[in-house]
UniProtKB/TrEMBL annotation:
It comes from the Bacteria. SUPFAM superfamilies: Homeodomain-like, Tetracyclin repressor-like, C-terminal domain. It holds the Pfam family TetR_C_31. Keywords: DNA-binding, Transcription, Transcription regulation. One of its GO terms (molecular function) is DNA binding. This is TetR family transcriptional regulator. Gene3D superfamilies: Tetracycline Repressor, domain 2 (1.10.357.10). Residues 11-71 form the HTH tetR-type domain. PROSITE patterns: HTH_TETR_2. It comes from Vineibacter terrae. Residues 34-53 bind DNA.
Amino acid sequence: MSRVRIRPTRDETRQRLFEAAAEVFAARGIGAASIDAIAAAAGFTRGAFYSNFESKDALIIAMLEDHVERSLEHHRDLLARHRDPVAYVAALRASERSRQDPLGRAPLLHMELVLFAARAEQRRPELAKRLRARRALVAEIVATTMRAAGHDVDPARAGAMLLALEDGFRLHRLIDPDTTPADSFLRAVSDLTRAIGLDKPRQA
C-alpha cells in the first residue's frame, strides 16, 4: 500500500502562508502584523515560516510575485480565447479572478503591499521587474486585440496608460471607496472602447 502524504508540500505551505498573511494584514495592518501571528494563522510554527521566507518583507515580495504570475497566466488564457477587444473586456469582467490568490480577492491589499515594499529602496528593483512584466502583458493584450479590430496603436504606450489607469483607480478606491466602485477600471475601459468605436462592427 502506498503511504498517505500528511505533511503539506512546499507550494501548499507557501500558499497557506500567503492566505494567512492576507488575513492578518487586513486585520492588524501590514506594519503591526508579526511573523508569529502569520505563522499561527496558517497553522504553522515560526520555524516553518522561516524555512520558507527569511523575513516578512521576503514574504510580501513573494506574495506580489505569485500574484503577478497568476495574473499573467489568467490574462493570457483569456486572450487566447477572446481576441476582439470588446469580447476580451467582457470576459475579463465575467471571470472570477477572486479564486486565484489572496491579492486577486483583495486589490486594495495588493496596492498597500506595493506601497509598503516600495518604501524599502533595496526592494524597488524587484518591484520594477514585476511592473515591467505587467506592462509587457498589457502591451501584448493591446497589440492582439487592436490588431483583431483593425486599429493601429503603439502597444507599449497604450499598455502603460491602461496600467496607470488601473493603478490609479485602485489608489482612488483605497482613499475613497464610497465614490470609487470596485469595477471602476473595467467601466473606464468599456467607455474607452465605445469612445473609439471598438464596439462597432468592422467595415468590410
